[in-house]
């Protein structure tokens, strides 16, 4: 049974109903409809913490999806799952692929910055302040790009940039 038919909570059921209506009334090719259905099922699985199932649906959505903008969101969500699983190198690969297709995706820039910042903190714990600074500088660059796209978002990142003297660079 497709995930879209298994939703138990009101919000998921409502989203599924609206999505099904949109699939019927918006002119789309069969490939676009197939991609959207897999994407929707992937989002539902991801929201329930069913990451393996979500990944399977996202990979299936990539097959028929040809629009670079839509592919960017699928790739971003795959990156999110790898981030949640602690697979930061894999996550970065998917965030970069998403940004190649959609450079105006501030959440991918933010998550890339978060991983760089985390790696900087790891370098400090390992006693390597020079490597840490390089990671922090990289995080700052990604956060500046994200903030430029979404100025009212990422307040903590803005504060970190100001406190560390990286905001105006």
Automatic annotation (TrEMBL):
Transmembrane intervals: none
Residue spans of the TPR repeats: 35-68, 72-105, 72-105, 120-153
Q: Where in the cell is it found?
A: Plastid membrane; Plastid, Chloroplast thylakoid membrane
State whether keyword Electron transport applies: no
The protein's matches in SUPFAM superfamilies, at most eight in alphabetical order, are given as: TPR-like
List the InterPro entries hit by this protein, alphabetically.
PSI_Ycf3_assembly, TPR-like_helical_dom_sf, TPR_rpt
The record ties this protein, via Pfam families, to: TPR_1 (PF00515)
Major subcellular site: plastid
One GO CC annotation, please? chloroplast thylakoid membrane
The alphabetized UniProt keywords are:
Chloroplast, Membrane, Photosynthesis, Plastid, Repeat, Thylakoid, TPR repeat
Q: How is this protein positioned relative to the membrane?
A: Peripheral membrane protein
Q: What does this protein's UniProt record list under function?
A: Seems to be required for the assembly of the photosystem I complex.
The text of the family note is:
Belongs to the Ycf3 family.
Stated name of the protein: Photosystem I assembly protein Ycf3
Q: From what organism does this protein derive?
A: Manoao colensoi
Which gene is the coding source of this polypeptide chain? Answer: ycf3
């Amino acid at each position: 049974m497709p995930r879209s038919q298994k939703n138990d909570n009101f919000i998921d059921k409502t989203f599924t109903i609206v999505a099904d209506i949109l699939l019927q009334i918006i002119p789309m090719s069969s490939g676009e409809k197939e991609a959207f259905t897999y994407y929707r099922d992937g989002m539902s699985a991801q929201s329930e913490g069913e990451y393996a199932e979500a990944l399977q649906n996202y990979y299936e959505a990539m097959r028929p999806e040809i629009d670079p903008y839509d592919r960017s969101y699928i790739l971003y969500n795959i990156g999110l799952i790898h981030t949640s699983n602690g697979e930061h190198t894999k996550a970065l690969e998917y965030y970069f692929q998403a940004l190649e297709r959609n450079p105006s995706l501030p959440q991918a820039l933010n998550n890339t910055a978060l991983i760089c910042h985390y790696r900087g903190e790891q370098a400090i714990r390992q006693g390597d302040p020079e490597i840490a600074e390089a990671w922090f500088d990289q995080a700052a660059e990604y956060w500046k790009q994200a903030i430029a796209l979404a100025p009212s978002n990422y307040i903590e990142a803005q504060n970190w940039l100001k406190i560390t003297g990286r905001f105006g660079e």
